[in-house]
Write a structure and sequence with these properties.
With 264 residues, the chain is mostly helical. It has one domain (2-57, 83-150, 200-263). It has nine helices and no strands. Helix 1 (2-28) crosses helix 4 and helix 1 (2-28) runs antiparallel to helix 8. The protein is globular and about 65 Å long.
Length: 264
């Protein structure tokens, strides 16, 4: 019963938070992405081969062999299809995060042995989630707009996971362990930056000076917009998760505790 309620609450909290962040992104994030894609598309068109050269390249050779194009990866079409898939991705991601948050808040209340979960306390959990999943990784790997030259994807993913894991563990140690052990939390918070995030020089070297300046300006706007939208999402996740635990998960949790705690 407890697991079922946690999952159902995660579905509800994730759906509401995912729809909210989708609306925020539609207002302030997606226009920046669209502007960057215009510059990216113009640069790709300028680098494309001449039509005659492309036709000659694709033409059958003297022995009858044909040139085989590698199939392009699928991506949603611009417009409604793209917006719909963005909303779906946001909702699914938010459901995953809400499942983790609700389980953590439930465990926190169970360990305390009394009622501590609420919407206000959930906001603190949401703020901690934002710090771990967005703010800490962004200090080393700022959000990137389309068309940005970056280090290898595998290296960036590995560093991002390291930053999230160290931030979550470090904050947990600072919040929940005795003071004599908190130095370990500080060390974990600093570890990803001591290693260093993977970067390459010349993120916009492929563009003209004027376009590069505009892309850099868009990058700054994108960093601010994504920070705001991510903060809104995490605060919504935390507040709703705390409220859901207090409203629906607590009664199921009480059945697992002693009668005295359940009456409290």
């Amino acid at each position: 019963m407890l697991f079922r309620r946690i999952v159902l609450c995660a579905l509800l909290v994730g759906a509401l938070s995912g729809l909210l962040v989708s609306a925020v992104q539609h207002w302030q994030v997606i226009p920046i992405i669209a502007a960057a894609e215009i510059f990216e598309g113009a640069a790709e068109a300028a680098e494309a081969p001449e039509p005659a050269a492309a036709m000659a390249h694709d033409h059958d050779d003297a022995h009858g062999a044909t040139h085989v194009h590698e199939e392009a990866a699928w991506e949603p079409k611009d417009g409604t299809e793209r917006h719909v898939w963005t909303v779906i991705a946001n909702v699914m991601t938010a459901i995953g995060f809400s499942l983790v948050l609700i389980a953590a808040i439930t465990a926190w209340e169970h360990l305390h042995g009394h009622r501590v979960a609420s919407a206000p306390s959930g906001l603190l959990w949401g703020a901690a989630g934002w710090l771990c999943v967005f703010a800490a990784p962004s200090l080393g790997l700022p959000p990137e707009i389309p068309g940005t030259a970056a280090a290898a994807l595998e290296a960036r993913q590995t560093w991002w996971l390291l930053a999230v894991a160290c931030s979550a563990t470090g904050l947990g140690l600072l919040a929940f362990v005795p003071s004599r052990m908190r130095w370990l939390g500080l060390a974990l918070l600093a570890l990803p930056y001591a290693i260093g995030a993977p970067h390459i020089d010349g993120a916009f070297a492929a563009y003209s000076d004027e376009v590069a300046r505009q892309m850099e300006a868009l990058t700054g706007q994108f960093a601010i917009a994504t920070a705001i939208s991510s903060a809104i999402e995490w605060l919504a996740l935390g507040g709703l998760a705390g409220w859901a635990v207090a409203r629906w998960v607590r009664p199921a949790l009480a059945t697992l505790e002693s009668p005295a705690i359940a009456r409290a």
